[in-house]
Design brief:
The protein is built from four helices and five strands, in the order E-H-E-E-H-E-E-H-H. The chain is α+β, with helices and mostly antiparallel strands and 128 residues long. It has one domain: Alpha-Beta Plaits (2-Layer Sandwich), CATH 3.30.70. The chain has a five-stranded antiparallel β-sheet with strand order 2-3-1-4-5. A hairpin with a 4-residue loop joins strand 4 and strand 5. Helix 2 crosses helix 4.
């Protein structure tokens, strides 16, 4: 399963480039991070980075992704909103403002909750 990560706002493409670099530096995510680009707008050069894609798998990959994402957001100066969407359409949003105000216990709880959201079985995989 893979997830797509987008950033809302004018700084979206630049923020995604920074996030992509940060995630690619995580040992558990090496080789799992790619990007989705849109064609260039008329009159502009080059494609526009639309989303960072991360292939999830066993062995703590979801935890590494969430930890890297939250760490990156805590150090961002802009007030960014990041949306993480699974292939089944489920998603969550997290803001830089939200994670900057957390103490260590709150940060651990947030990372745990977001990791569980990514690791939960897809809706079509659940049996009644």
């Amino acid at each position: 399963m893979s997830v797509s990560i987008t950033v809302a706002g004018d700084a979206g493409a630049e923020a995604l480039r920074q996030l992509r670099s940060r995630l690619r530096a995580e040992p558990a995510l090496r080789g799992r991070v790619t990007e989705r680009e849109l064609p260039p707008a008329p009159g502009t050069l080059g494609p526009v980075l639309d989303a960072v894609l991360v292939a999830l798998g066993p062995g703590g990959v979801a935890a590494a992704l969430v930890t890297g994402l939250v760490s990156w957001l805590r150090h961002e100066r802009a007030d960014l909103t990041v949306r993480v969407e699974r292939a089944d359409g489920s998603s969550f949003e997290i803001t830089a403002q939200r994670v900057k105000g957390l103490d260590a216990a709150g940060l651990r709880a947030e990372i745990t909750a977001l990791t569980r959201a990514l690791e939960a079985p897809a809706a079509e995989d659940r049996t009644p």
